[in-house]
Amino acid sequence: MAKKKAPPEKRPTYSFTKLNTFDNCPGAYKLIYQDKRPRVELDIRNIGIQAHELQAKYLAHLFHRGIATDWEFAWKLLGPDAHPETKAIWMDAVMRFTLPDTWEKPQVESRMGFTDKWEPCGFFDPEVYFRMVVDLHFIQDGLAVVKDWKTSRMVPKEIEKDLQTRLYGWGVMRTFYPQAEEILLVLHYLRYGAERKLLLDPEDLAHVPSYLEEKIMHIEQEKYFNPTPGSFCGMCGVAPYCDAMTQALIPRMVITPATLEEAIESAKVLLAIESVGREIKRTLKAYSEECGPIPIMEGDHPYCYGPVPWADWDLNPEKVAAEAMSLGITREAAWRMLIVSKSSIEKVLKKEKKREFLDHLLATGTEDITRYMVKFYKPKAPEAPAEAEGEAANGGGA
User: CA 171 to CA 205: how far, in whole Å?
Assistant: First the structure.
């Protein structure tokens, strides 16, 4: 009896989220997309998912009804499980928004699929190779517009023509507006109602498929998928399964590194722990503010984690110094009570919009370089040698 042939292995599909995860941490990519580890729920991700879902449902309702706004419907969309931050973001966003009558043929949550030849196909077609979802697109004054919702806490001064922004434009042009000469990309920051815009032309979009192929080839050739601890650790959702995090808990070489290699591994683990620690602090802060202090025991010692009231004093430096000296405290000791630091001077000058006076004020003292802070920082790029700079200025030719 002939053996049945095993079904062909399903070819992996890709998305920008997958590519971005690999760029941030190959270890997280493997855990999420190859090992299929369930991701831990994180507020930062849940807020974004909920806000996007609300925006999509609300806009679809407005498009269907042909109305500019519907606050009553918007409030009904908020379910009991909505995160408090999502509620705040959503209420502000709805209050600011009125559907413009200049949008033509708007479509929300458009799902697009592409074959390995980068031809459009269905999102769930068997031949789909790359998937993407665009929050909103429409035609306005003859120009194709793509809008993407952001729940970030920071709004950049400007946005760059990176792979993500080009991918939005390329996918929509390829699928919906093949005759468009340009695509206007708009990133809308829901927390603040701020927008950043970027005009993409055919030259910006022409090489998107080759960029994607290069990144996918890099992933498919990867053998080790080593974790790279860093700021992404607080957002990946698979830190509990991560080797770098597990090794952080006990190995002696992490706690007391004796070689450069051990010190490097120790620093990687510390960076991951700090990133996850920031996320834990943020969520515990929100929980304790809403539900009260969190009681815990460390051995036989009881502790509580939660808000602690504290008082600040608005003191007059001259009065403090005068009163201290009147009590017999030496002038030198009295002056040390009046904390003067570079950071405090900078803070005042910034508030007064006179930061140009910083060097002048610092020149009244002497720089103390005997004290320093140990922390993570980005090293400066090495400066080019003088000869190389000269060659570059002359075009590099002989």
Answer: 9
For 65, counting Cβ atoms within 10 Å of its Cβ (0-12 exposed, 13-18 middle, 19+ buried), the class is exposed
**Sequence spans of domains, the chain:** 16-215, 248-305, 317-355
Contacts of 204 (CB under 8 A, 6+ apart): 161, 166, 169
Query: 286-298: per-residue pLDDT in tens?
Result: 888 878 888 887 6
- Residue 132 to residue 148: CA distance in whole angstroms: 12
To the question of domain 16-215 being in CATH 3.40.50, the answer is no
**Which residues share a beta bridge with 185?**
146, 198
154-160-161 Cα angle (round to 5): 145
Q: Whose CA is closest to 176, among 141, 136, 149?
A: 136
Looking up tokens 């608005």, which residue turns up? 314
With CA atoms as reference, report the closest residue to 112 among 27, 46, 180, 175. 175
pTM above 0.85, yes or no: no
User: 123 pLDDT band (50/70/90 cuts)?
Assistant: very high
Instruction: Specify whether the CB–CB gap between 139 and 105 falls below 8 A.
Output: yes
